[in-house]
């Protein structure tokens, strides 16, 4: 009996030492505006299949409109989602956040706009033409009570909007600085700029880029491909603090006829830091 106990001890220790993990996806799903072969009705099943196969704990989407969210919710019953239209209400683009109902619980959530008046829905500043916003939440892992904060966003897209993108990054950084210093944070989004840009530098002064730090990385290093399958920019990022990146991947799934979106989704897996042992 003693021998069996001794043999079983390392296995028990291994399970006890297994890190608590968090799998995060960022996915610009492309609006349903297309009327050609890339229209939403041709893509939605494939997109839902990619999410199902990857099974992220939480996913930040961009360019999501309400009917797309409803379609995905019907195909992803294991997920709940929340979000608000960028002009307020249910109209226009949402920064929709999907999360596994069996893994996470929402403790708090909200929205703010990337403008000089961030609490005003639909507000625009800094010379770009469309409202931009952040949808955020504080989540708790059902399994162990660990918490983290997710921010999800979509920055202005035009070449001439770089100064506005810097302002967006500065406002997000200001908000992040107000969070507890020991709280894990994940920032997902389509930032419409590259890793050598001022917005990336502003955000990575506080956060780290999972693509640059994860020990295991797969897929192309660029994400926007305009439905061609040949990406030319890495504008979709998963940034973080207070977590240990394990893997990151750019996903290039397609069904032979089309891609689920004009962006490749990015998925990263993180480990939470080990908890301090309880004092005797």
Tell me the Rg in angstroms: 20 Å
User: How far from one another are the termini?
Assistant: 28 Å
Label the structural class. alpha+beta
* Number of DSSP strand runs: 13
CATH hierarchy, class of the domain at 100-271: Alpha Beta
Write the CATH homologous superfamily of the domain at 100-271. Endonuclease/exonuclease/phosphatase
H-E order: HEHEHEEEEEHEHEHEEEE
Q: pLDDT below 50 for ≥5 consecutive residues: which ranges?
A: 1-16
Largest sheet: 7 strands, mixed
Per the CATH scheme, the topology name of the domain at 100-271 is Deoxyribonuclease I, Chain A
Q: Give the rounded overall mean pLDDT.
A: 93
Strand content: 25-35%
Counted by DSSP, the helix tally is 6
Strand order of the largest sheet: 3-4-2-1-13-12-10
Q: What is the helix content?
A: 10-25%
